[in-house]
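WARN no homologs supplied; continuing
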Amino acid sequence: MPIELLRGMRDYGPGEAIRLREITSKVEDVFRRFGFYPIETPSLESTETLNAKAYGREAEKEMYTLDDGKSGLIYDLTVPLARYVSMNKGLGLPFKRYQIAKAWRRDEPQRMRSRELIQADIDIVGSAEPTSEAEAIAATAIALEGVGVTDYTILISSRVILNAIMEIFKVPEDKRTGVMITIDKLGKISREKALEQISESGVGEKQAEALLNFINEEMENAKKLQKIKNDAPSVTAESDRLSSIISLLGNYGINGAVKVDFSLARGLGYYTGTVWELVAEKDGKRLPTIAAGGRYDGLIGIYSKTPMPAVGSSIGLSRVYEVVDIGEAINTYATVYVANIGQENVEYALKAANTMRSNGIRVDMNLTARNISKQLEYANAMRIKYVAIVGGREKEQNMIRLRDMGDGSEELLSIEDVLKKLKG
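OK structure emitted
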């Protein structure tokens, strides 16, 4: 029986893992520049924590629980954060954390949708101001730009406004979740399918048609927000909040356009206000969402007697990996390979390699009994830029023959000159 990977899982080989780490490093650097600091939480949480009305019924079906039923794999990084904050009362506020880790979902695998996810999250706990939304969105956008995602749009809306739209079109309260889920799928399913699903939720056909027309009406952000204020005065403050966030985002110099999109609901049940998604295109086609977030002012209060306002944003690094090009692929971090001619020169080769390593140079070296020709083939296959060749002649002169694998040129250099060249 052949050995196979589990469905929805994947391996990253050396070149792929290096590329993934380059992406992760660049994202992490942006988070740090924005003043976020890391925490680490377990991959397992108690099912009591995971099921504490946090995710909603939709997500509960997708959680992986262990056989004892008392613990499960985390579904995302937000609920562990909420649990952490509730257990650590002395945190300085606002608490600005980032975390990069894996999460797991019992999802149906498909293109850019797997069961094991790598997420990069930022959250701001303790601020109810629109500046916190703007900061989280901007940091996310700039991080994505840093890894090569330039053709993207920021879609933004609010659960408060979407609830008001449900009231405008008299969607029964017990049917709203289903209707919102359908509305959130617009762009992924046809209008006809959306109308069918909304009608099946108990909304009349004409009412469903009017609802979709309202949601899909194209107009400038300011006009769209003014219209919802006119139709539902109760959301005036929330509409003005979105206007403020959009205005604040104009100060960050981000490349992506910001678009108010009332169809945006986000799937998890803990969002209470602003929600957003960053959607990108490749070859003229819209890609699955690569980053998203929102405000969840009620979540921490589930775990603590002290409710706190909170907002967060998550980048799906697994998806970003699939869509960005960060340059020529490399198979190793090493920039130089130390090759020895003859086993009698192994110790001299080792001395040269360790001298370079102690000076901060990434070095691979020959660990086999193969000849110099095979060693050069290996270095070339690994795309290592330089080969430091040492044989009897080089050992006698206390020198190193440095070959540039790009043009084939060679120089006979002292170890000091090799260090200067490689560092330069």
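The CA atoms of residues 234 and 269 lie 22 Å apart.
OK
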